[in-house]
Amino acid sequence: MPATATDVRIATLCTLALYIKYFVTLTIQGSTKFKTASRPPEDMSFAASSAPQQRAFIPETSEEDLEAAKAREARWSRILGNDVENLPFGIIMAWVAIVAGGNGTVTSVAFILYTVCRIVHTIAFANAVFLPRTIAFQVGVVSTVVLSINAIAGFLKRHSTEIKNFQGGKGGVPAFSPSPPNPSTMSSKDDMNDDEIREQDRFLPTANISRIMKVSLPNTAKIAKDGKETVQECVSEFISFITSEASDKCQQEKRKTINGDDIIWAMSTLGFDSYVEPLKLYLQKYRESVKVEKSDKKDNVGSFGASS
């Protein structure tokens, strides 16, 4: 299932956590340079004269302390370098997986695991603990690979769906025809082959299309015939696109009937999120009206039986 709004929020929080971790690492690495006097001279003089805790910015003088300060600076420089080499790939792959239509659950789990591993790696590296640092690094690399594979899988699935819906094939629609078939030349469905039936079904009544289009236009506006036919084709393609996605869900769940919830799920999956809530309200009202109608019929039948 492609990424949902929750998956996007999780990715946002993970990205923020990694940036904060990187900023903290950068700050600590920069501060270690004061003790080894490797900062630019103007930085050293400003910190020594203006910093609230001047002692922290005064270079070490004894040889032993200076060597320890250099070792600490080198360690934090390696930590920072490791972040610069690895963080961009993990973050980019996570967001690419979301955009490409990769499985949302896989993306969220892999990105959370990657974020935790990068934080553990930094803490272990700073404290010179070998095994946790190595494991965290390796698991982080595996998480990045999983995100990459998930992104590729999402892209291939979406691409195959688009081909199926827009270029024909199993569950798709036939190629575009420049003009609708003439109903007068078709006496009945018994006289038509399968291709002709499918071609006729692709076109909605022009009067309905025109009426819907005019709702959004000024009273003086007009619609050309090719405009109506273009919208006609768009609507047909859109219906096929949504229905095909809903059909895939039914097949995965081994169901034969597509219901309103499947259509709404397909709309959300294909990125039409702004339409989901209004459609949910409409579906709820429709189902309530059906229940009321059935209840009224039962009451009428009961009263008729009692009177007779």
TrEMBL record:
PROSITE patterns in the record: NFYB_HAP3 (PS00685)
Tagged with keyword ATP-binding: no
Location of the region described as Disordered in the Swiss-Prot/TrEMBL record: 167-193
Membrane-crossing residue ranges in chain numbering: 87-115, 135-156
Superkingdom field: Eukaryota
A single GO molecular function term of this UniProt record: protein heterodimerization activity
Entry protein name: Transcription factor CBF/NF-Y/archaeal histone domain-containing protein
